[in-house]
């Protein structure tokens, strides 16, 4: 099994693409380089930390460490999205709701994945 087979990676990959496109197409020009840049970075951090954690899955604590960082980056991404919508930089409510749903789904799946690793993962020696 590869990290690309993980449902949390698949959802995070889709999220990165959606946020990348939104931040470059739907925001005012000045916002592309401010919060737009931040939301692109935090969303990519979610996916990258899932990948890095999976690469260290032999060591349970390291695996969990990177999954927790991925969750923190997900929460940061949610906050940036909310800020963009509340400040009316992102005016498309449908796009906001679609991204919010995607982030909520990923948060639930990532939480369950972390719980599963905590309960069931065995460290190799």
**Biggest pleated sheet:** none
Strand element count: 0
Mean pLDDT: 95
- By DSSP (H or I, 4+ residues per run), the number of helices equals 5
Number of domains: 1
Give an overview of the whole structure.
This protein is mainly α. The chain has a single domain, classed as 23S rRNA-intervening sequence (de novo design (two linked rop proteins), Up-down Bundle). Helices cover 79% and strands 0% of the residues. Helix 1 packs antiparallel against helix 3, helix 1 runs antiparallel to helix 5 and helix 4 packs antiparallel against helix 5. It is elongated and about 50 Å long. 25% of the residues are buried. The model has no long low-confidence stretch (mean pLDDT 95).
Summarize the model shown:
This protein is an all-alpha fold and 125 residues long.
Keywords:
single chain, 125 residues, mainly alpha, de novo design (two linked rop proteins), 5 helices
Task: Reconstruct the topology from this structure.
Elements: H1 7-25, H2 29-32, H3 35-55, H4 60-86, H5 93-120
């Amino acid at each position: 099994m590869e990290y690309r087979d993980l449902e949390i990676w698949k959802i995070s990959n889709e999220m990165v693409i959606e946020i990348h496109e939104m931040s470059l197409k739907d925001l005012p020009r000045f916002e592309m380089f401010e919060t737009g840049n931040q939301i692109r970075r935090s969303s990519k951090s979610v996916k990258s930390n899932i990948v890095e954690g999976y690469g260290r899955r032999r060591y349970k604590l390291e695996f969990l460490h990177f999954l927790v960082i991925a969750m923190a980056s997900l929460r940061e991404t949610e906050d940036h999205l909310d800020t963009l919508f509340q400040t009316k930089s992102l005016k498309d409510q449908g796009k906001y709701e679609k991204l919010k749903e995607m982030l909520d789904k990923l948060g639930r799946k990532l939480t369950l994945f972390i719980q599963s690793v905590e309960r069931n993962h065995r460290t190799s020696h």
